[in-house]
Amino acid sequence: MKLKAISTKNAPAAIGPYSQAIQAGNLLFCSGQIPLDPATGEVVDGDIRRQAEQVMENISSVLTEAGAGFGDVVKATVFLVEMSDFSAVNEVYGRFFSDHKPARSTVAVKALPRGVGVEIEVVACV
To answer: Which residues are bridge partners to 103 per DSSP?
Structure first.
């Protein structure tokens, strides 16, 4: 099976030895996105809702580069530093998925890169 790295300047560059996404056949494995502004590489200002919005915008850019969209996502994993942020992140997440409801897991973690409160990764069909 041929693997294809997906990269876009409309999402933050990888901050380590990984790709924004890898396409394997008709599956797209998107690396976790944190709330970095793609233009500056800095964490966006604002509360957890603003962080979640930036994360979802970053995911959208990676999906678009691969020729996919949120309707093609089959699985999402949400990582939260504070489980008390679940409702706020869920509200933002729901706006991006509307009628389509992929499988999802949400887990609490001790910390995330750059001190952010949320990270989300997705798997999509392309």
So the answer is: 75
Rounded Cα distance between 115 and 126, Å, is 32
Look-up of token digits 């008709």: 26
Q: Which CATH superfamily is domain 3-125 in?
A: RutC-like (3.30.1330.40)
pLDDT tens readout for residues 15-41: 789 999 999 999 999 999 999 999 999
Contacts of 88 (CB under 8 A, 6+ apart): 47, 48, 49, 52
The residue among 45, 116, 44, 53 whose CA lies nearest residue 81 is 116
Contacts of 23 (CB under 8 A, 6+ apart): 3, 4, 5, 6, 29, 66, 126
Average pLDDT of the segment spanning 11-16: 90
Residue reference for tokens 């996105």: 33
